[in-house]
Structure formats: C-alpha cells, structure tokens
C-alpha cells in the first residue's frame, strides 16, 4: 500500500528545527541545552512513525473490531490514500460497498488525489466493493439513513472552523442508519465530536486512546465510537 505522509510540513519543521537547535546546544557545551532539541527530534520521529506505520496498525485493529456484514454500506470521510477504505473493502462482497469522499487537499496528505487512490484500489482488486467521489463532509451528497457505518481517520480535524466540524459530525449522523456506528480516529477535537454526537442523541459513545501507534509527536490519537 502506498503510504502518504500526513501534513508533511509538520515533521519537516520539527526535525529541521531540532537539528539546528542540536547544533547550537552542542556548541554551548551545556548538557541542559540538549533537552529542547531532543524533544523536537523525538517528536518528529514519532510523527513519522505514526504517519507511515502506526496509523495503519490502528486502522487494521479498528476494522477487525467492527461488526461488518459482507453487504454493509460504509462511508469513509476524508479518504486520502484510502487506507481505511481498502481495509474495510476487503471485508465486503457486492452489493456491500464502501464509499470514500475527499476534497483531495495535498496540504492534508502528500500526493492526495482521487486518481492516485483509485489506482491503489484497482491494484487491490477492490473496485467492485468501493467507490470514490469528490465531496465535502460538511455537505454530504447522500440521502438520510444510507450507511451502516460512517468512518474517518485523521481527517475531520482539518475542517475549520469549529462550526464546520460540528456540521460534518451532524452530516455523518444524518446519513447513518438507525443502529449504525460512527467511528472517528483523530488527534484533535475529540471532545467537540463527543459533545455534538451527544446533542444529536447517540445511544452509545466511547472514547479510547490509540497508544504508541497513534503519537503524532506530542499529539495522541484517540478513537471515538458512537451508535445511533
């Protein structure tokens, strides 16, 4: 699977500033001055690990825990390179389908483009149970109560401002079937998602930490599950 670096400028800056600060610290001959550059370098390294390895392990674990029926209808918000979509698609059989939407912003993920993700899907022979479309998660082009699951991985936090994130959560809830489940893997704004879903009237809601595989530097990935 092709792996896209999330927000590629962030680890570049962390590591670059860390190296500059390390040179300055070594020149000072004061051990205490090594603390800050080491924090930057470790944060950059953790970010790279999670973005290129860890988040995929989280997705595999989350999908294995989903009660996915072969004919399920699933919506993936902010698909990117399709890691979540393809892991789900492997569990489906037509007429089951996972639909991935994105605005394909390359600032959110390196080489983020519909054509690139479609090639990955085709290479995995998953075309019959998956579909990509360009759409904004704040205004979903789907009817009410269409999907058994709505999922998102490190995507909704990119929506700004907070009112737009609330709209994205509301839209996800709108297109979810009664008894269906929303699963959000993200590094920010989990408390806001939780409040919005509670206001919408979810019947069940849990939040858990993703562990070492989800550490984007000092930011910890959390997993929210909510049932309609």
UniProtKB/TrEMBL annotation:
One of its GO terms (biological process) is methylation. Residues 75-184 form the Methyltransferase type domain. GO terms for molecular function: methyltransferase activity. Signal peptide: none annotated. It comes from the Bacteria. InterPro entries: Methyltransf_11 (IPR013216), SAM-dependent_MTases_sf (IPR029063). Keywords: Membrane, Methyltransferase, Transferase, Transmembrane, Transmembrane helix. Gene3D superfamilies: Vaccinia Virus protein VP39. This is Class I SAM-dependent methyltransferase. The lineage of its organism: Bacteria, Bacillati, Bacillota, Bacilli, Lactobacillales.
């Amino acid at each position: 699977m092709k792996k896209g670096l999330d927000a590629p400028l962030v680890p570049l800056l962390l590591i670059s500033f860390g190296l500059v600060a390390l040179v300055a610290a070594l020149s000072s001959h004061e051990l205490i001055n090594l603390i800050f550059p080491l924090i930057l370098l470790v944060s950059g390294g953790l970010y790279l690990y999670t973005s290129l390895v860890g988040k995929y392990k989280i997705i595999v674990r989350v999908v294995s825990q989903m009660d996915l029926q072969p004919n399920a209808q699933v919506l993936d918000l902010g698909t990117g390179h399709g890691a979540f979509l393809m892991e789900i698609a492997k569990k489906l059989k037509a007429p089951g389908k996972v639909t991935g939407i994105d605005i394909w912003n390359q600032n959110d993920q390196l080489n983020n483009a519909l054509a690139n993700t479609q090639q990955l899907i085709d290479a995995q022979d998953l075309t019959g149970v998956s579909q990509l479309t360009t759409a904004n998660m704040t205004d979903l082009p789907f009817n009410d109560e269409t999907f058994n699951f709505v999922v998102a991985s490190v995507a909704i936090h990119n929506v700004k401002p907070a009112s737009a994130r609330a709209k994205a959560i509301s839209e996800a809830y709108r297109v979810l079937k009664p008894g269906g489940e929303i699963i959000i893997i993200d590094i920010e704004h989990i408390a806001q998602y939780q409040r919005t879903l509670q206001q919408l009237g979810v019947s069940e809601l849990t939040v858990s930490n993703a562990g070492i595989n989800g550490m984007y530097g000092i930011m910890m990935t959390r997993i929210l599950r909510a049932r309609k």
